[in-house]
Amino acid sequence: MPSKTKKFRGSRTHGRGKKHGRGAGLRGGHGNAGLHKHKVMYMLKYMPDHFGRHGFKRPQEMVSAKITLNVGEIEEILERLMKDGFAVKKGDKMVINLTEMGVDKLLGFGKVQQKLEIVVSETSETAKQKIEAAGGAIVQPQ
């Protein structure tokens, strides 16, 4: 049996029409080609949100999360804070500067047993109560 190529020698298109044998001619292009032209009804029906912008982008100052620390963690890392210079002993109190350390907010999870004077810009109500109950204080940075 002769091959198809041999059979169609001399026929110019080999029985495929003008574009069928060339690239993606029969399909109307590769991928999303023609979505604004000959495939427009397909796009409107099955891909209505394909073109254009969607939603909005929030400003970075709103997106960035605050760096937080719990009161229970302070006593665990107290030696390291003293070594790094963020904590100093003054009388019977430990003065800890969390703003220099880069902490934005102090949260109230954990136990406080020492008298702590903490310099931080924001605190939760629970953290404030626990520190004041132990005989300490919260100081706002200047």
Please provide a brief summary of the model.
The protein has 142 residues and is an alpha/beta fold.
Question: How would you summarize the topology of this molecule?
Answer:
Elements: H1 4-7, H2 40-46, H3 60-63, E1 68-70, H4 71-76, H5 78-84, E2 87-90, E3 93-97, H6 98-101, E4 105-107, E5 116-119, E6 122-123, H7 125-133, E7 137-139
Which strand order spans the largest sheet, edge to edge or round the barrel? 2-3-5-7
Into which percentage range does the β-strand content fall?
Answer: 15-25%
**Unreliable stretches:** none
CATH architecture of the largest domain: Ribosomal Protein L15, Chain: K, domain 2
CA radius of gyration is 36 Å
State the helix count.
Answer: 7
Give the helix level as a range of percent.
Answer: 25-40%
**Total discrete domains:** 2
The tally of strands reads 7
The major pleated sheet works out as: 4 strands, mixed
- State the secondary-structure class: alpha/beta
- Alpha-carbon distance between the two ends: 95 Å
Quaternary state of this entry equals single chain
CATH class category name of the largest domain = Alpha Beta
What is the H/E order? HHHEHHEEHEEEHE
Query: Which word captures the global form?
Result: rod-shaped
Question: Any idea of the CATH topology of the largest domain?
Answer: Ribosomal Protein L15, Chain: K, domain 2
Question: What is the averaged pLDDT score?
Answer: 89
